[in-house]
Amino acid sequence: MPTITKIHESSGGIVFNGSLVLLIEVISPYREYNFPKGTMEIGESAEKTAVREVSEETGYLAKIIMPLSDLKYEFIVEDVCVKKTVHYFVMEVEDIAKTPEQKLEVGEDLRPIWTTVPEALGRLTHNNSEDILLQAVGLYED
Q1: Which residues contact 27 (CB under 8 A, 6 or more apart)?
Q2: In 1-142, where do the E strands start and end?
Q3: Predicted TM-score (pTM) of this structure
Q4: CA separation (Å) from 46 to 15, 19, 28, 94, 119?
Q5: What is the enclosing helix (H) or strand (E) of 70?
Q6: What does the alpha-carbon distance between residue 90 and residue 50 come to, in Å, rounded to a whole number?
Q7: Is 135 left (phi over 0), alpha (psi -120 to 50) or beta?
Q8: Distance CA 116, CA 97 (A)
Q9: Mind listing the pLDDT tens digit for each residue in 48-58?
Q10: 3-class DSSP assignment, residue 120
């Protein structure tokens, strides 16, 4: 049983370019497919974090269209229970023609991938990511 609980907040985006959606392929330490997201910095809003993290992880500039539901989950790492909240936003790429330039941290091995929604649903590693994508599609298409 974990003896310590940590609260962790992240923010990210479900980024669209027309009918395509942007995924992150995590190459290492194990292959995983998800959406760009990352830790909120001190004093940074969820919106600002989402825009920054999409840019850093994918190299694309994107604008926020609207907020989505927060994703909440827990996991245990080395006897620490992490209670995580991820603030997601529906976003749209601003300049698809611009060559993306990632700004990855040491140890990050990520690759941005544009894919169709059905293909994304087949690739996403976590079920809760599928749920947030379906919510985003419903709002983006309205």
Answers
A1: 109, 110, 111
A2: 4-17, 20-28, 32-34, 37-39, 62-67, 71-77, 80-93, 109-116
A3: 0.88
A4: 15, 25, 26, 19, 28
A5: none
A6: 10
A7: alpha
A8: 18
A9: 999 999 999 99
A10: helix
Q: How confident is the model at residue 105 (pLDDT cuts 50, 70, 90)?
A: confident
Structure tokens, 92: 């749209």
pLDDT of 109-120, one tens digit each? 789 999 999 999
Write the CB contacts of 48 (distance below 8 Å, at least 6 apart in sequence). Answer: none
Chain-centroid distance, C-alpha 34: 6
| Tens digit of each residue's pLDDT (9 = 90 or more) over 69-99 | 999 999 888 889 999 999 999 999 997 766 6
Determine contact, residues 51/62, Cβ cutoff 8 Å.
yes
∠ at Cα 137 (130, 19), nearest 5°?
A: 110
